[in-house]
Amino acid sequence: MSEQRFQRPFGQGPRGQDPYGQGPGYDPGYREDRPSNLHRFLGGSPGAVLVRLVFLSLLVGAGMAMMGVTPGLLFAQAYDTIHSLIALGFDTFHDAGRWFVAGAVVVVPLWLLSRVFARGR
């Protein structure tokens, strides 16, 4: 009875292995179905990924040349965009600072008065 508790249902593991994961020709150091870390990171074999990247780079470069876009222009546009976003963020903080001061001019004296009058009770 207790022997049946430790067996998998139907007596077989995945892919025809025994209940402990060791099928015929089991070698604990060999991993056939797992790609290496490099293959997983690159998304395939290094040679195939290199060929794909070269082909896509040529294709994108040709398209950019047809539209008159240069790498220098791309970097300049990216710099201008980032600069505009940073300036917009600082303007927002500047406005928020003014709102904070305007609100504090009203809220702090009212809070102080409420504390003074509550203390007298």
From TrEMBL:
Could you tell me which residue ranges the DUF6460 domain spans? 86-119
Q: Transmembrane region positions?
A: 49-79, 99-118
Report biased composition (Low complexity) as residue ranges.
11-28
**UniProt keyword Kinase, yes or no:** no
| Start and end residues of each stretch annotated as Disordered | 1-34
Q: Which UniProt keywords apply?
A: Membrane, Transmembrane, Transmembrane helix
Which InterPro entries does the record match to this protein?
A: DUF6460
Pfam families in UniProt:
DUF6460
Highest taxon above the source species: Bacteria
Q: What is this protein called?
A: DUF6460 domain-containing protein
